[in-house]
């Protein structure tokens, strides 16, 4: 990190300037290619995104701090980020520059109020891992026990605080100029980020989280968590048991030790869902560097700096959504989304319920391959309309769950590219539902038997409503076409008016008549304003 990057004003300027340039580039590209998206346009779009990602990566590696953490977050969001962007940022997890040994040594001796030799018999001066908040060294205690010592980067708390000021400015710009900003509760997301990353800066929080998960998995034979030494751990230095193991994505290690990748992926899925569903406290940063595997196949979870919480009320809504899908009661699904605060106040719940039903029906019956092009096109068109009209948002509390989930899915597909997530995850979810629904009773058995009949009225209602929906859709298309014809007519008339009034401008230079001298240019200016407004009205219509 050079001298300038320690200056608060310079950091804020660099971060805000980069974001502003990105926003302007994306807005100009969208306006330039609106309505004309071709293969060539897509190629140019990917080139632009790749260029932006490369610039972000270079800036993040120079400034470090929060940009590294945000880059790692973005690199896992395959659901919202273009592939070209992900490819540029994926190595931010592994290639964070390490600080010099003398700086890390100074942090340890400040925290321990004396030479590190009073605590450690030996420590390797070369770190085994380097991250955005701290780096890890292998050491030995005077008792002979091998330990991992995590040391916080010097001055990182001040750097993160400065970066958050810049991020707050960027979020304000995003809320005003981007669709993502309008679909997300950015102030709440900012508060969530400061809380989670602020806790990550205090290693005592990670210590408490690690001891919690150690106790939680002590009865699991195939899962392990390192012991933490609370006596010599501090706010900026964390000491834990040293565990030998390879990254879980080290496929050569798995093959050499005869570890079945599909079985390993199934066990990982059970662990993740158990964290999420049973108690709601989950590892929010499950990237490959934080999950190890021993030669005997034992999974080792490490680094609990980022831990998310799922409130009990949210678990209730999630259960209601699952039951709604199983019972084909899509009103309950939409109500669950609303309870989780995924829906904006103006959301069209009827349309949303219809789209969810169509998607679930298509998936469960595998009917996407059997539907004709018109039916598929209508379904996709309705989904696109819902997204454009912004009926949904990403609640701040789910931002880190989404990050954890997308990171975890990417890890599973490395282990087993052909994994069926629905099949693997079904049993843990059913176990959770059974546990929360109570023990099986005759009434429960009867309810399960009658489930197809209970959903029959909704299917009949849906069938009866189909002609109405079809007519509504036709009316909407007709109204849209009529409105576009009207706007195009206005645009054509405005252009004609501009062409007719243009000759009055040079004519005014050669006449002495007051009416023509002033009236001609005035009419021409009015015609230009009229034409410009008609263009804007048409563009706004196309954006809806």
TrEMBL record:
Out of the domains of life, which is the source?
A: Bacteria
Family (UniProt): Belongs to the protein kinase superfamily. ADCK protein kinase family.
- A Pfam family of the record is ABC1
GO MF annotation, one: protein kinase activity
UniProt entry tagged with the keyword Transmembrane: yes
Question: Is the keyword Membrane in the record?
Answer: yes
Identification of the protein by name: Protein kinase domain-containing protein
| Every Protein kinase domain range | 122-487
| PROSITE patterns per the UniProt record, alphabetical | PROTEIN_KINASE_DOM
């Amino acid at each position: 990190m050079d001298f300038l990057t320690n200056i608060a004003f310079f950091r804020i300027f660099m971060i805000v300037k980069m974001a502003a340039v990105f926003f302007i580039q994306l807005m100009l590209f969208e306006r330039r290619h609106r309505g004309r998206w071709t293969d060539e346009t897509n190629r140019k779009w990917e080139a632009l995104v790749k260029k932006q990602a490369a610039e972000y990566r270079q800036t993040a590696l120079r400034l470090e701090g929060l940009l590294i953490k945000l880059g790692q977050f973005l690199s896992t969001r395959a659901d919202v980020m273009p592939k070209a962007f992900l490819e540029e940022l994926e190595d931010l997890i592994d290639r964070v520059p390490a600080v010099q040994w003398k700086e890390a040594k100074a942090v340890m001796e400040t925290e321990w109020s004396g030479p590190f030799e009073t605590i450690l018999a030996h420590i390797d001066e070369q770190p085994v891992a380097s991250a955005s908040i701290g780096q890890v060294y292998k050491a030995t205690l005077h008792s002979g026990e091998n330990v991992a010592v995590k040391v916080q980067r010097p001055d990182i708390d001040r750097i993160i605080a400065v970066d958050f000021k810049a991020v707050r400015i960027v979020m304000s710009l995003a809320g005003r100029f981007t669709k993502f900003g309008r679909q997300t509760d950015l102030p709440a997301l900012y508060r969530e980020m400061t809380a989670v990353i602020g806790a990550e800066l205090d290693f005592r929080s990670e210590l408490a989280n690690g001891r919690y998960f150690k106790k939680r998995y002590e009865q699991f034979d195939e899962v392990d968590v390192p012991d933490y030494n609370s006596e010599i751990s501090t706010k900026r230095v964390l000491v834990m048991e040293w565990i030998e193991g390879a990254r879980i994505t080290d496929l050569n290690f798995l093959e050499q030790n005869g570890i079945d990748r599909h079985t390993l992926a199934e066990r990982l899925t059970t662990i993740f869902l158990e964290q999420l569903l049973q108690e709601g406290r989950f590892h929010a940063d499950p990237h490959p560097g934080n999950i190890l595997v021993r030669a005997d196949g034992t999974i080792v979870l490490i680094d609990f700096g980022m831990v998310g919480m799922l409130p009990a009320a949210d678990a209730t809504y999630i259960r209601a959504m699952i039951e709604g899908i199983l019972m084909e009661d899509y009103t309950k699904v939409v109500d669950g989304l609303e309870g989780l605060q995924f829906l904006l106040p103006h959301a069209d719940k009827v349309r949303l319920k219809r789209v969810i039903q169509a998607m679930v029906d298509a998936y469960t019956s595998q009917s996407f391959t059997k539907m004709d092009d018109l039916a598929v096109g209508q379904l996709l068109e309705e989904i696109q309309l819902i997204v454009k009209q912004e009926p949904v948002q990403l609640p701040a509390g789910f931002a880190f769950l989404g990050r954890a989930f997308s990171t975890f899915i990417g890890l599973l597909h490395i282990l087993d590219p052909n994994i069926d997530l629905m099949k693997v995850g079904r049993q843990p979810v059913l176990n959770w539902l059974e546990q929360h629904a109570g023990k099986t009773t005759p009434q429960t058995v009867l309810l399960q038997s009658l489930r197809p009949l209970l959903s029959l009225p909704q299917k009949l209602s849906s069938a009866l409503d189909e002609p109405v929906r079809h007519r509504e859709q036709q009316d909407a298309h007709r109204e849209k076409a009529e409105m576009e014809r009207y706007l195009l007519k206005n645009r054509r008339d405005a252009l004609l008016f501009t062409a007719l009034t243009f000759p009055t401008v040079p004519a005014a230079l050669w006449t002495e008549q007051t009416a023509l001298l002033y009236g001609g240019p005035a009419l021409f200016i009015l015609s230009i304003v009229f034409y410009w407004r008609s263009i804007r009205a048409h563009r706004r219509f196309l954006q809806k």
